[in-house]
Design goal:
Layout lengths: L1 H22 L4 E4 L5 E7 L4 E6 L2 E6 L5 E9 L4 E2 L4 H12 L11 E11 L10 E9 L2 E13 L4 E10 L20 E12 L2
Antiparallel strand pairs: 1-4, 1-11, 2-3, 2-11, 3-6, 4-5, 5-7, 7-8, 8-9, 9-10, 10-11
Length: 201
């Protein structure tokens, strides 16, 4: 009886291995820079601005349909705005790149290193299936960051989408943080990510 049990267990292991092999999911996916974007919204009590950043990087899998890690780089100089045009748009972008905000000459990049990806269900947001945690570096400071995401992995592509609020004061972006000042910007920036990747070669 024990022999039959061992044979059955061995068959299951072989079938599982074959199944994972047949999936052919790459251990690493490269971010498609042309199809991926990070969008932002910065708000004041009476108005807001919105825009985007480019993003590069990679995502790691366990060879199956689970993401296990990743690293992303955001070139801050790629910041764009979509609600203004002409001189006002350029003035805003120059201001955001200055040492009042991102200080691009000194800190040209922001980075996110994924340390953990957990199963997660968000009842109020259909499709959310993971919680991504990691270390986010911006303006010379690194702090932990976690957010819910919808992750999909197939043989040919990977996608990760999610939204969260980034507390800018935690990273030292303190400009216009006085509610009694002539211009007050809310302390949280609304961030949305839309990452798409293809198997790394």
């Amino acid at each position: 009886m024990k022999r039959h049990h061992y044979l059955f267990s061995a068959m299951l292991l072989v079938l599982a291995a074959c199944s994972n092999k047949d999936k052919g999911i790459a251990p690493s996916f490269k971010v498609d820079e042309n199809a991926s974007v990070i969008t932002w919204i910065g708000k004041a009590p009476t108005h807001f601005h919105k825009g985007s950043f480019k993003v590069t990087g990679s995502l790691l899998t366990n060879g199956d349909d689970r993401v296990t890690g990743g690293d992303f780089t955001i070139p801050i100089a790629s910041i764009d705005n979509e609600d203004l045009s002409g001189p006002p748009k350029q003035q805003l972008l120059n201001h955001l790149k200055s040492d009042t905000f991102f200080n691009v000459p000194m800190y040209p990049e922001a980075k996110f290193h994924v340390t953990k990806v957990e199963d997660f269900k968000e009842a109020s947001v259909p499709g959310i299936n993971a919680k991504i945690s990691g270390e986010f570096t911006m303006i010379g400071q690194t702090h932990p960051l976690s957010f819910p995401a919808a992750i999909q992995v197939t043989k040919d592509k990977i996608s990760a989408t999610g939204s969260f609020k980034l507390p800018r004061l935690d990273w030292g972006m303190n400009a216009y943080s006085d509610p009694a000042g002539p211009l007050y910007i809310l302390p949280e920036i609304e961030i949305s990510i839309d990452i798409k990747g293809t198997p790394a070669k």
